[in-house]
Amino acid sequence: MGILERLKTETAELHRETEEYSYGDLIMSGRLTRAQYGDLIDKNTAVHRHYEAILTQIEGLDALFEGRLSERMKLAALENDLATLEHPSRSLPAPVHQPTDLAEALGAMYVLEGSSLGGAMIARALSKIPEIANTGAFAFYTFYGAELGIQWKSFGQIVVNFVETHGQADRLVESAQRTFESVKSIFSTALEPVA
């Protein structure tokens, strides 16, 4: 089994558990409120703030992306959405997982980049909810635009090449699992009632 298949298979249950806290049913049924959308963006912001600060410091990671790692950093888009929504950012639990090398960084990025795949579908569903569509706060969920498929395929090839060259598949998969656990810990934090 190749590394991409392993990642998908060995994170599937954690992926499903994490999605239980991401308002998926409400988004797809058109019942998500603006406050819930703000909460979702706030939680994604907390995740990306934590991981992007670490990833940009991992030695050699930018080189794997041919000097274009910064083009995959989504924190600014999230902060823009939060500001547009005028949703207050709250203090959320910091992830305990801290990647320390290339294998662990790629494992974490598998989760962060993978979340973009569903972004186009989520953006389409959100655009049908007038209360949210009217805000135009979709910078995160439309981050790659028409380049989404190309960006995901490119990321997958970087992961495959890394494992073929350096091994460390087990550590990469374990890091992806720990990233999902961290994301789940943040996403499971209840939305505080609006005062």
Describe this structure in words.
The chain has 195 residues and is mainly α. It has one domain (3-187): Heme oxygenase-like (Heme Oxygenase, Chain A, Up-down Bundle), CATH 1.20.910.10. 64% of the residues lie in helices and 0% in strands. It contains eleven helices and no strands. It has helices spanning 3-10, 12-19, 24-28, 34-55, 61-64, 75-85, 102-117, 119-126, 130-133, 148-166, 169-187. Helix 4 packs antiparallel against helix 6, helix 4 (34-55) packs antiparallel against helix 7 (102-117) and helix 7 crosses helix 11. The termini are far apart. The model has no long low-confidence stretch (mean pLDDT 94).
Topology:
Blueprint: H1 3-10, H2 12-19, H3 24-28, H4 34-55, H5 61-64, H6 75-85, H7 102-117, H8 119-126, H9 130-133, H10 148-166, H11 169-187
The helix-and-strand class reads mainly alpha
* Helix share, percent: 55-70%
What's the domain count? 1
What is the β-strand count? 0
CATH architecture grouping: Up-down Bundle
User: N-to-C terminal Cα separation, in Å?
Assistant: 51 Å
Low-confidence sequence ranges: none
Alpha plus pi helix count:
11
Structural shape: globular
Mean pLDDT score? 94
CATH fold name: Heme Oxygenase, Chain A
CATH superfamily: Heme oxygenase-like
CATH class type: Mainly Alpha
Percent strand equals: under 5%
Query: How would you characterize the largest beta sheet?
Result: none
**What is the alpha-carbon Rg in Å?**
16 Å
What string, H for helix and E for strand, traces the elements in order?
Answer: HHHHHHHHHHH
